[in-house]
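re: ur question from earlier - yeah i can do the single chain one, its not a big deal. heres the input i used so u can compare w yours
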Amino acid sequence: MPPQIGVQLYSVREQLAQDFVGTMKRIAEIGFAGVETAFFDETVKPKEAKRLFDDLDLTVIAAHCPMPLGEQQEFTLSLLDDLQCQRAIWHGWAEDA
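and the output i got, formated as tokens:
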């Protein structure tokens, strides 16, 4: 079996902002097996996105999110649970750090 390839959704963020469902359908059509989520905007909820990913047979490989520490802990753990994802990818230091 050839290796399964995922796509980092941040790389198509502009397309997702224009047409989330259509972009995700195209990603699945191309043959990607999974996605690494990026930050969701207010129009897409993680649970809704997860249902779409499941419908398209796309695995959530990882979630780009804040570290699950301090004030962000509940948010991040909830996000990972909603996406049924076990890998959190931290985006790095804040610009003002």
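The first strand starts at residue 6 and ends at 8. not sure if urs matches, ping me
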